[in-house]
Amino acid sequence: MLDPKRIAINQATTRAQWDFRESVEGYARHGVRGIGVWRDAIERCGMADAKRLLADNGMTVTGLNRAGPVVGLDEGARRAALDDARRAIDQAAELSAACLPVLPGSLRSKSKDMNAVRIQYREALAELLSPARKAGITLALEPLHPMLAADRSCMNTMADANDLCDALGQGIGIIVDVYHVWWDSRLEAEIRRAGKDRLVGFHVSDWLVPTRDLVFDRGMMGDGIIDLRRIRRWADGAGYEGPVEVEIYSNLDWWTKNPHSVVEVCLERCRSVV
Amino acid sequence: MLDPKRIAINQATTRAQWDFRESVEGYARHGVRGIGVWRDAIERCGMADAKRLLADNGMTVTGLNRAGPVVGLDEGARRAALDDARRAIDQAAELSAACLPVLPGSLRSKSKDMNAVRIQYREALAELLSPARKAGITLALEPLHPMLAADRSCMNTMADANDLCDALGQGIGIIVDVYHVWWDSRLEAEIRRAGKDRLVGFHVSDWLVPTRDLVFDRGMMGDGIIDLRRIRRWADGAGYEGPVEVEIYSNLDWWTKNPHSVVEVCLERCRSVV
Prior knowledge:
The structure is a homodimer. By secondary structure, the first copy, chain A, is of the alpha/beta class. Helix content of chain A is about 45%, strand content about 15%. In chain A, helix 9 (about 230-235) links the parallel strand 7 (about 200-205) and strand 8 (about 245).
């Protein structure tokens, strides 16, 4: 069974109901001690107040969402995106976040060249690595589902993420979000390839049949078809000991419910099926 | 530019407007000489009439859709599915179809074990290979997009299809449907790996941003973000000389339009962007 101390919740899971303060206090009331936070929420709250709130509730930050998108941009926008990513590195350091996901983005304007945007992503990561290492912040690669390849992420498999890690060296890790990678026949092998050193996050939700929306129809663990426990054991078997973070985008269902009930169900399902 | 003689249209592209006879005659009127046909349409028309209609219009059959699903079934249903697939082999031979796609299917009932259904698919193909070889029909593997992995196909990449071909030997080929595989960073390498001997079909449509439905929102070539010409050249570069088949599922758009206009746009776009 999953050690309950490892359970974390991403703020997105209750973002329709709770602001930052309510999320931190709400999760804490149910015994959760890890939270994935979002920059806009931190900025609305104010960094000093956010840090105090986290400390007062014994809450650690699993990741700060996020830097990027950084590809498919003209030169001015690309520079601005990299400057913004450097600010995100500083914010992540202030919050002692375990990692900073860097969303690639994908095709923009008229280009259809996926290879070009993939090269841009690698170059942007290379540029961000130096300030990230200096700040002690691990940049996190999170492969997103191929159905998001056109507009949100040009990195769509664990193999692509591992290849990038090979190319870029120390200071980069990988978040396994089961929703995005569960379908991949190479998943077990690529989780093993990532290993203890690279695995910096493990996100859970579930794939619903049918899925009604490409972004906002994720299911509660156990309500869909992902073999969550099997995949979690692959990660643990590869040496991963970090948080198991619930991240559910669900504007048709969970975002309409009482957030305390949502957290209770999250915890129950983490115990029973993850 | 694409040789216009290679252009074919899958009947699904006008399935809301035209029955089998209307499709054959309609495509032929616009100079198209290849059609991807569906078994239910052939059966409604009657095999003898269907063959006459095809011959009278100088139309060849690129593929007969389809055998399967064959996985995730209990033993009785599995036997019935394999028997049905053998009938499909005979029908494909009667129609001189260039290939017979075998849809795997995926998870059913309570199982979440993707590896198990993938093994079932390989076993089903192995069982069908002997009658297919006898009938001179190539079984076609068509990787479907990972967003369809839960319920429609447990085979989701060109790499998986190539691995199956490696395991099963002669008599099996691969259909590259750009809609399903365009996002894959390994696409070019896996098309090359498939090569002339394995490539038995090349289907085109386009990926729309946003995509509003996981199955029925494919775009007309040129209306989306797929670099169609680049991918078609990869296939041609690997030695593929067969049909380029338009297959558009679009209940919100193209299925609501005058089918003659749809065919005209298909042909124009094949010339201008494929």
